[in-house]
Amino acid sequence: SVTLLPYLSPYLVGPKDARWYGNIAIDFLTQVRSGKFPVFAGETIYAFNGVVQTIRTAPWLLHFTALVDGLTLRALTPLAAQHIAIIASYTSSVLLLYVALVRMRPNAPWTAFLFAVIYAISPSLIMPLVAHDMYMTAMVFPWLVLVYYATARAVEGASYRAFAWIGVGCAAMWMCHPPTAFGAMGIATVCLVARYAVGGPTMRLTLGA
Q1: What is d(CA 50, CA 47) in angstroms, rounded to the nearest whole number?
Q2: What is the pTM for the complete model shown?
């Protein structure tokens, strides 16, 4: 989406919490670049109050930012690396939704493409960033798609693999943004319980995708 173009920069983007997210990213990467890993608490002037990274901030945003920093050979500023992490999360969620819909309905690829486009420009995907600087919420988007896709697969076919992907996705969401993870797990649980109620206790599990 064109609304993410401002994130293609090494500068702060956003009027609310962007500075706080920027400070913890700089603090985190400063420590990682100095050879300290894992990083548990802020120790630089950018997080002088000793912010506890693994509890207060949900770790995936900072760890993925560090991964981007490593893959780019530390050629980017911490803010630029953080922005790439956000853009990657947004992009992968859209692509994952398209792939998931095509796998579920192989005969309707253009319908899947249309829904992916609608998803890409939907306020639910863009507004958390544009209006509220909710960086951690943005990091949960691809895992949210994975959990809902796997839930749909489990409802349709009750496969072991689908349940395994639900577990992977839920674990990842808790690393990204616990409130979203809690809500998504509640929705998935309701869907699966309803499926079990309809299928009965003899509902058989398979090894399907």
Answers
A1: 6
A2: 0.85
